[in-house]
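Hi R.,

As promised on Friday, here is the backbone we talked about, encoded as structure tokens. Could you run it through your design pipeline when you get a chance and send me back a sequence?
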């Protein structure tokens, strides 16, 4: 389970600092971009090779739970981002609000959603299925939402080229990994640390190139300290609303305690691993530093809050078991 301040969080902070002090540009930036694209392709190939069909089938039949999670992820979250615009925009710059809106359209996490569900004694097979389905559908749904909603609120208009880029850079490598699983699946399962390093390494590369371009374009000069403080408040507001809503929905819809935990952790979180590579594709030609900054902060906040919640659920379960 992710720690409150793990090595990857420190690496993210160091990468942002490096890009702020020594941003890459010119031919160096082109080389980094090429290497980043290759790393992202490898990342999704390994995700495809890692995905177990048996684990997905084990939880696939719980369709009411999955629909609830997907509705929270791809309907409720974007709706809140839009409806709260009058409240959120005074707290952040227009560029950061665009990043917040993009954050609202992303799929759920996979690894941490499953880890927190397991720790809290929730329905782990259903969590595996819901989180996986969210990420797979996000490859299609997120670009559509970006095109329909972000373009209507001052963002860059999306076109068929962006959708094809998603297919080429993300979906095709994933499908290739699924096909190759019969030959390399066992090796990938035995070397899960490799996927972790590719996952984190590709994110760090994208963050470095993104923030390098943003710093050169004047990100920090255009983002006052008050806007950063406001962004923390915006992320906390969004996460709090989703945690409360998913918790209420689980109870009102009559789900078991284990399913309520699954809905809580899978329906309230957003994927940094999917969001950063997608931003690079969907916002190609634009400085995406301000786009991914809200996601990076939200990622850390959700880990800290969900870790505390999972520990609380676990302690409650152990206390009930001893009673």
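Update: got your reply. Pasting your designed sequence below so it's all in one thread:
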């Amino acid at each position: 389970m992710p720690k409150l301040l793990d090595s990857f969080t420190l690496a993210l902070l160091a990468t942002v600092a490096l890009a702020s002090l020594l941003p890459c540009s010119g031919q160096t930036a082109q080389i980094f971009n090429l290497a980043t694209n290759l790393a992202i392709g490898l990342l999704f190939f390994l995700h495809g090779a890692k995905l177990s069909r048996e684990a997905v089938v084990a939880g696939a039949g719980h369709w009411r739970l999955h629909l609830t999670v997907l509705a929270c992820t791809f309907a409720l979250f974007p709706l809140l981002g839009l409806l709260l615009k009058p409240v959120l925009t005074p707290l952040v710059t227009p560029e950061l609000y665009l990043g917040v809106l993009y954050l609202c359209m992303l799929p759920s996490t996979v690894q941490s959603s499953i880890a927190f569900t397991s720790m809290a004694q929730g329905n782990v097979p259903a969590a595996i299925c819901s989180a996986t389905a969210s990420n797979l559908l996000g490859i299609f749904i997120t670009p559509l939402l970006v095109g329909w909603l972000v373009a209507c609120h001052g963002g860059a208009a999306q076109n068929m080229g962006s959708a094809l880029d998603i297919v080429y850079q993300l979906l095709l490598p994933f499908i290739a990994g699924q096909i190759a699983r019969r030959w390399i699946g066992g090796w990938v399962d035995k070397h899960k640390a490799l996927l972790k390093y590719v996952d984190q390494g590709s994110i760090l590369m994208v963050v470095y190139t993104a923030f390098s371009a943003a710093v050169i374009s004047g990100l920090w000069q255009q983002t006052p300290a008050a806007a950063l403080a406001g962004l923390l408040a915006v992320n906390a507001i969004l996460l709090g609303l989703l945690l409360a809503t998913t918790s209420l929905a689980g109870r009102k819809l009559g789900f078991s305690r284990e399913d309520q935990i699954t809905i809580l952790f899978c329906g309230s979180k957003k994927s940094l691993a999917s969001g950063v590579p997608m931003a690079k594709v969907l916002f190609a030609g634009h400085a995406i530093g301000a786009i991914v900054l809200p996601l990076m902060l939200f990622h850390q906040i959700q880990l800290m809050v969900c870790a505390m919640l999972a520990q609380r659920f676990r302690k409650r379960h152990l206390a009930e078991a001893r009673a």
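One thing I noticed while checking it: Residues 63-157+201-314 form a domain with the Na+/H+ antiporter like fold fold (CATH 1.20.1530.20).

Thanks again,
M.
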